[in-house]
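agent> step 3/5: call structure_predict on target 'CubicO group peptidase (Beta-lactamase class C family)' (Saccharothrix variisporea).
agent> reason: downstream docking stage needs a structural representation; sequence fetched in step 2, passing through unchanged.
tool.input:
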Amino acid sequence: MTIQGFCAPGFEDVRAEFERNFAERGEVGASVHVTVEGQSVVDLWGGDAGGRPWTEDTITHVWSCTKGATALCAHILASRGELDLDAPVVRYWPEFGQNGKEHTLVRHLLGHQAGLAAVREPLPADAMYDWALMTDVLARQEPFWEPGTAHGYHALTFGYLVGEVVRRVTGHTLAEFFEKEVSGPLGLDFWLTLPEDLEPLVAPTIPPAPGPTTSPFFVAATTRPDSVQALMLLNNGGYVVASNSRAAHAAQYGSVGGMSNARGLAQLYRPLALGGSYNGVDLIGEEQIAVMSAVASAGHDRMLLGPTRFALGFLKANDRPSVEEGDAMGLSEDAFGHSGMGGSIGFAAPAARMSFGYAMNRQGGGVGLNGRGQSLVDAVYRALGYRRAGGGWFR
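tool.output (status=ok):
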């Protein structure tokens, strides 16, 4: 198995850890990309992409990394003054104001505080391919908790909630807006709806090996059929089990449907590591970076049943020690981004003017980083002169 691409001087340890992932940690196919001061300093790929070599152009399903792209669309509108994050959702989406949600704020949607972390109403097969159906269901649903009083990871509903606000404000679908304002101008390998002619570039997802888990989420989902965890896992229209299908890749699914690679993830966050602009593309004002990176909700997560920390639409560092369970995410405190189920990640670290992306086809457990991704993140921080203390990185 041959690793291809390059590492700039000083980042050789990233390549060493990438190679070690294949040799010792069970990596099958993957890519990693890093930018510093806007320049690519790491661009590596290798392994198997479903019976063929993983190439420079291979893409794969990046799962909840998609939430970062969706959140960015909302922040672009906020930076332009077209969306008030402190306004009630009903200002933009009047039908949402039902069953105790009349005072829900836009920031509650972004901060996983809306109380809509799962769907009570039984969903038909393929429901999550149907945007109108899902947004109608969520608009009329009673929340699981009073919005704004607690948080719980909206794993499969986040994209409809935030994406519908984007649609109401702009008149464009979420995918259209993302392509027009972000992926097109930046030239990203990142799609919220994958064109059919790009399907041959896809490395299919390999689910994690079955086995015992200590995850409180999975314990609740499998032992308490009336829990919010069970509803999320079992009442989703079958999307998760059909995620390698052409229909899933073509669907607009702003929570977990994005198709990309490490280059696409790192370059999505590159402008955000540089104050909001890159190469003449002005995504957001610099003041919005502070809003995007600040912790908005933290503490006990009512969905994941453990401690989490969220900015408005992005994950923040979480120093839980169980990296191999896929729960931890050791980053610098200024960093913000999003991991994807099984271990992919994209993030910006503005203090270092660095962005990072990692995508792979063989999933690990959990919704955060596992040892493969964290080893690469750690190597980058070491190359930048950071030191590890506890679960985070500091200068």
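agent> step 4/5: record observation. Residues 4-73+176-394 form a domain with the Beta-lactamase fold (CATH 3.40.710.10).
agent> proceeding.
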